[in-house]
Amino acid sequence: MKQGIVTLVGAGPGDPELLTVKAVKAIRGASLLLVDDLVADDVIGLASSTARIVHVGKRGGCRSTPQEFILRMMVQASQAGENVVRLKGGDPFIFGRGGEEQEHLSRHGIEVQVVNGITAGLAAASLVGVPLTHRELAQGVVFVTGHTRADGTSVDWPQLAEMAQRAHLTLVIYMGVRNADSLQQALLKGMPGSTPFVAVQDASLPGQKMAAGTLDQLARIMQSQRIASPAVIVLGEVSRATLLAHTAMAQARNAAA
Ligand code: SAH
Fold first, then answer.
1. Could you tell me the mean pLDDT of each successive run of 10 residues in the chain, 257 residues long?
2. Which of 9, 19, 38 to mutate to test the pocket of ligand 1 (most atoms within 8 A of CB)?
C-alpha cells in the first residue's frame, strides 16, 4: 500500500479569506483532519464531506488531547495510506508545535509537508493599522510567548525589553493575557512605562476587539477592557499612532454621550 503524507497546514487567524490557496487545496484533499483549538469553523467547513475530522484541542474546558496520542494517530493514519492534514491556527511553525511534530514524523519515515498560515501577531497588527516594522520606528520584530513553561524555563523579560528598547524592535507577545501583570512588571525593568501597546483579541474574527495604552497601564487596561484569550500584544513605538487614534475616538465618543 502506498504510504500517505502528513501536511501541517496553517489555518491563519480565523477569517477563511486569509487562507493561502495551498492551504485550501490541502484541506479539501484531506481524508483525515486533525484540528487544533483555534481553527475557525468556517475553515474546517472547507473539508470534503467524506473526510474524517478529529478535534484535538481543548475547547469547552476539557483537557486537550495528549500530544503523544496526536502523534500516534498521524503516524498510523499516514502509514495506512491516508492523506492527513494537521490543521493549526496561524502558522504551524509559530508556537504551534509544528517543529516537534515534523521531527517525530520524519523519525518514522513519513513525508511531511508544511503550508504556511498567517500568524496571529502579523494579522492582528495589520488589522488595527500597526506596521510591525517601520523605517523610523522599528528595525525588527520579535515574536515571543508570554506563557511560562511548566519546567520553569521562561523568557528573560527585563533583558528582552532592554534589547528591544536599544535596538528598536517591536515585541509581539502571544499567550500573554493571563500573565499581563507579571509581564508588565518584568518589561518595565528594561523599557519606559510610556512605551505604547495595542492588544488584539480574536483578530480577523467577527468578535475582534482591541485595547491600547502604555506599558505602565498594561495589566489594568487589559483587565478593564476585558481582553481575553486568544489575544496578542504588540508593544513598541509602531503602536503609538493606533493608540492615539483609539484614544481620540474614545474621547469623541465620551463627548457625544
Ligand atoms: N500558531 C499560532 C499560535 C498558537 S499559540 C499562530 O501562528 O498564530 C496561541 C496564541 O496565538 C493565543 O494565545 C494568542 O496569543 C494567539 N492567537 C491565535 N489566534 C488569535 C487571534 N485570532 N487573535 C489574536 N490572537 C490569536
1. 90 97 98 94 95 81 75 93 96 94 94 97 98 97 87 85 98 96 96 98 97 98 97 98 95 92
2. 38
